[in-house]
Specification:
Number of domains: 1
CATH superfamily: predicted glycosyltransferase like domains
Mean pLDDT: 81
Structural class: alpha+beta
Distance between the termini: 21 Å
CATH architecture: Beta Barrel
CATH class: Mainly Beta
Helix content: 10-25%
Order of helices and strands: EEEEEEH
Shape: globular
Strand content: 35-45%
């Protein structure tokens, strides 16, 4: 299923990256103190730097996660940067060459999406 692309929520120049109002399925895997949690959720407010998602679990700012974009067959790493209740905002990480390549691929996908709604 293709993501549903809508007009960005912010005007150009107010954020580092353009935000897309898309909703895509993700699988969030968190390994805290050898306790692994796998959460199925939906990413929203996606941009080249991160996204928001809902998780009915206790995630703290600074927790790292592996994010699998299930429809895109793509896995990236991220860190929780903000939280409001069960809504979390994550920032993408690239701590290896492979992760940097995956993040670059994701950013190319977003770039193509931006051309579609322009």
């Amino acid at each position: 299923m293709a993501p549903d692309v809508r007009i960005p929520t912010t005007s150009p120049g107010t954020r580092r990256w353009r935000r897309f109002e898309v909703t895509v399925p993700v699988r969030v895997t968190i390994d805290k103190l050898r306790q692994v949690s796998v959460i199925s959720s939906r990413a929203s407010q996606v941009n080249a730097g991160g996204f928001a998602f809902f998780a009915d679990t206790d995630l703290a700012i600074g927790d790292e996660a592996e994010i699998a974009f299930t429809n895109l067959f793509l896995i990236v790493r991220a860190v929780v940067r903000n939280r409001a209740g069960n809504h979390h905002g994550v920032k993408f990480l690239a701590t290896s060459t492979e992760e940097a390549e995956h993040l670059g691929r994701f950013q190319q996908i977003l770039s193509r999406m931006g051309r579609l709604d322009a």
